[in-house]
Design a protein that fits this description.
By secondary structure, this protein is of the alpha+beta class. The protein has helices spanning 33-39, 74-83, 91-97, 102-110, 114-118, 125-135, and strands at 4-13, 16-20, 26-30, 46-57, 64-71. The longest helix has 11 residues, at 125-135.
Length: 159
């Protein structure tokens, strides 16, 4: 499994970071929206991403494409790995839903804030309730003081 890559950030576009490693090998790494925003100012800079490697299948199930999802630190990756344990949330859905910082999502789960969770892309009321039921009590390590700062309109949006 590819668990971390280090290289130069060539570009970031639509949730995809292009990272060139020493020796010329270049990876496309999918990133959550909140990370894409942070990386958008770092083009041309060295970057280390902690990754999750998975195989994405077609609807027919006959073809699989390897994918990497990248995070800025191990804790973000750990949260993602916990998040995808919720029934009905797979790798891509979790990636799209992570429009807010991990600490904000974890705080919403810890506080049983279904409304905030519903504001995340891909998360409706039922799914928000399932997330809370599955992860409440398991996310306390991810909650920080920064988690209480919400966007001005109180809604999470993907850039």
């Amino acid at each position: 499994m590819i668990c971390r890559i280090h290289g130069q950030l060539e570009s970031i576009d639509e949730g995809k970071a292009i990272v060139q490693l020493d020796g010329g090998l270049t990876y496309e790494v999918l990133v959550p929206a909140f990370i894409a925003v942070r990386l958008s100012v770092g083009t041309g800079q060295p970057i280390t991403l902690h990754t999750v490697h998975f195989l994405e299948g077609t609807s027919q199930g006959s073809h699989f494409t390897p994918r990497l999802i990248g995070f800025l630190d191990v804790e973000q990756r750990r949260f993602y790995e916990l998040f995808i344990t919720v029934k009905g949330i797979g790798p891509r859905k979790a990636l799209r839903a992570m429009a807010l910082d991990v600490s904000q999502i974890a705080a919403a789960i810890a506080d049983r804030d279904v409304k905030l969770l519903q504001s995340l892309p891909e998360i409706g009321r039922r799914m928000a309730e399932t997330v809370v039921a599955t992860l409440h009590g398991k996310v306390d390590d991810f909650v920080t003081a920064a988690s209480f700062a919400l966007p001005k309109d109180g809604k999470a949006t993907a850039p």
